[in-house]
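Meet my pick.
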Amino acid sequence: MVSSIVVYGGSGALGRAIVSTFIKKQWNVISIDFNANQEATTNILLEKGDSLEEQAKRVIGAISGQVDAIVCVAGGWAGGNAASNDLFANSELMWKQSVHSSLVAAHLASKTLKAGGLLTLTGAFPAQKGTPFMIGYGMAKAAVHQLVASLAGPDSGIPADAKVNAILPVTLDTPMNRSGMPNADFSSWTSCFEVAERLYGWATGEIPMTSGKLVEIMTKDNKTTYVEK
């Protein structure tokens, strides 16, 4: 029987790596995003004007049957401190991109995730502490961290034996990051395909994991470590 995964944010840099990796492993891959991923088995396209409830209905209504894994890698980045003119707009954007997508993924897990399945959300390494120069981003990612703790607890609504965690990358090696930071030390950046392979290991049970944990992803000299917190 073919295994299935939902990739929320399947047309972003990390999402594309995940879709490609699982397709090569002969999984059925459902991509959810505003743009289609041509590698995916199925695409569910979102509308930018959707409310949170409308987005959830659009996603839930398009998926039939049960899936083995749900990975939410939707998100973005915007800076700004308390004095920034963009504080409110950026904070609202960060909340929609990270928290709304994570909430929909969690609700989807309650409806479609198989017993013993995997739900992985995306937090952020810096959001474990204060983020004064990117307040909205830090608040949104910290909320995702709290959501993971809630989902891993009893009576959270997802299957009782499901595994849930969040990945906390420092810097992913993406075209956008390379364009924005051309003089950075790329040997300390994490390959998106490296993360995708780790997710595959968790989804198949080949790599053990502890539900409810935040997983720091750190790369040094092109070698990546994963630390559960």
Notes: Helices lie at 13-24, 52-62, 87-112, 135-151, 175-180, 192-204. The radius of gyration is 17 Å.
